[in-house]
Amino acid sequence: MRILDMTTFVALARHRHFGRAAQELHTTQPAISIRLAAMEQEFGCKLMHRTGRDFALTPEGERVLDTFRAILASYDNLKHELAGQTMHAAKVVRIGAIDSVSSTWMTPFVEALHETFPTLKIELTVEGTKSLVEGLNKGEFDVIFAVDPAIGDNFRSFTSCVLQMTWAGSPKIIDPDRIYSVDDLADMPIITFPKDTPPYRMIAPYFQDEQVLAGKLTSSNSLYSIINLLIDGFGVGAIPTVTIKRELKMGLLHPIRVTKRFPPMPIIGTYQATSETDLIRRVVEQARLSAALFCATVDPSMAWVD
């Protein structure tokens, strides 16, 4: 059994796709298939089930995966020790996050990672939840922070923090001293994220009738654009309070007093269980710590850790 065969099996288990595994290993799909067949012949059992596009490890395959990952980790550590390197050899971690994370605790998170892993290369992508989940499913990310988790046996998820949502608007169009009912808000132009996104799915049930929003909705996939539209008085919107601290303090925006509170928004971290190396585990631990430290620096009603 070669290190190459073990690396191939781990990559195949991570991607659940022959083409993507071949691309990562700079080889061809037939070469991947030959290596898998050779391993199954050597072990005398099936390691993977493949039905159409469905791809799953057998119980024997799960045992082999755990063993291969441990062997490869030990092999990497041995190489680094013999080469006189630290255990933090140059590696890449691919992180995806939504706007609400990039504008709050992402910077101290990245700074902490660089301090702990001086040679670590971080590839950061800021996208909407839907794109991040799709990217994680395709193996394009190691860790994502979004409103929804990626679903599947090969993923692990955790709540990094919870952000309180606030209805806010410009003093040009709202009365800060007035208490607004749901019907009052429904009569105003609403600014939110596009339809079929998690934030929109939170908006629609709030009014109990999606048709109410049909003619009064302005959508944008950018948190920063939404904030600017709110400041300019184009409408009102429900966004994480902590992302508009500065605008609230300057009086550019005011929180809207409402009879029905908007539910808070959890920030869910998800990572590939099949790539749960020591590095990824420590990245996840640092994410939890960075989120908690950030929450400790702001009003506890704005952001907290469960």
From TrEMBL:
Sequence similarity: Belongs to the LysR transcriptional regulatory family.
Species of origin: Devosia yakushimensis
Bilayer-crossing regions: none
InterPro entries: LysR_HTH_N, LysR_subst-bd, WH-like_DNA-bd_sf, WH_DNA-bd_sf
Keywords for the protein's UniProt record, in alphabetical order: DNA-binding, Transcription, Transcription regulation
Domain annotation HTH lysR-type: ranges: 1-58
Protein name from the UniProt record: Transcriptional regulator
This protein's record includes keyword Manganese: no
Signal sequence segment: none
